[in-house]
């Protein structure tokens, strides 16, 4: 059986690939894809695999956006870091999932359950996935409330050029001010529209409108010029370069 992993976090993808090799030797992982755009491009050029390990939230959209454009579904095992309200949707629709960080025994159980579902309920499988997708319709933050001195100020997301992390704190940058914000970058990336914002490395999430220049950089990375300008170099990490190019060219 051939499988594809669709996961935007490189470490999570590598860990899952290793677990599959160790726990399910009959499965061959033939590709690891990190974004909606990259996955759709791959499926357009390759024969569908027998199985997809599919992350729900990707840098440039959701896994369901990929499924909607496929001509029929392969076997699917969802991977997710969502909270309980979303996990209830999986249970209600009898679709199995793997909660990150993924455990080896849970991986084996999910695969066994999937085989049983396809033997006994294959005709209803597509309907269940379609119903499940409605629980994950994307909603994105339109404003952020930040504290300025003794007051609070509401900042429209469309006015934010980028977010960055420095010395233990997160900040948002507009055209004329930099303000601390009470979110981690991991939290922020799930609140932002992936068509407008992209996490280029561990320190920066950038708006497409803020990217003014893109230059080749050593070690197969990219160097960005942002507006407003920054005091430090802004570099797209090597493992995110392909997804960034697809995002910037959308």
TrEMBL record:
Residues 2-115 form the Response regulatory domain. The keyword Phosphoprotein applies. Transmembrane segments: none annotated. Keywords: Phosphoprotein. Residues 144-250 form the HTH LytTR-type domain. GO terms for molecular function: DNA binding; phosphorelay response regulator activity. InterPro entries: CheY-like_superfamily, LytR-like, LytTR_DNA-bd_dom, Sig_transdc_resp-reg_receiver. The modification 4-aspartylphosphate is found at residue 55. PANTHER family: STAGE 0 SPORULATION PROTEIN A HOMOLOG (PTHR37299:SF1), TRANSCRIPTIONAL REGULATOR-RELATED (PTHR37299). This is DNA-binding response regulator. The lineage of its organism: Bacteria, Pseudomonadati, Bacteroidota, Cytophagia, Cytophagales.
